[in-house]
Fold this protein.
Amino acid sequence: KLLSNISWKKKIFMVTSLFLLGIIVEALLGGYTILAQNKSMRLALEESYAKVNAAITARVAILEMNRSQAELISQSDAQKIRQAAVSAIRASSMLEEAVQHLAETFVDSPSVLELTRLIAEIKPAKMEVIKAARNNDDAHALQIADGMQDSMARVEELSRNLVEEEQQALAEVMANQDK
């Protein structure tokens, strides 16, 4: 009875208005959902990228430290020894900074905790290698470096695994974006 007093024109207008209102609500909810997904995906990608970047930086620092140490030991000219020693000390400092950044990025990661511990254990021996090589005592420097080989192999293994794990995690985030 309530609708019988309303003209057909108004009835059609009301039904059309309800339909349009439903479309508008659905569009708004869909837009909000897409924005929320984009924001969460962006945050996941940024976090994963930061972790990959930190892991790669640490890996490069480890390789640079090893390279500069080998270069230092191989030098025989006093000026080149001095330059190589400065380079080795700089590489060691860069490694410490990279590992500290790793520890901040990967909070409570067993691999990073072990890596940090190993780097701290190796540091005095690294300085001894630099000191011996600077004094042109290559035999003693090589002996100290050989004593660190197991620890350095573990450091390299941990850093390589960390890079690979984070690259895999980034690939998974990218793959989940398509879903």
The chain has five helices and no strands. The mean pLDDT is 88. Residues 33 and 88 are 52 Å apart (CA to CA).
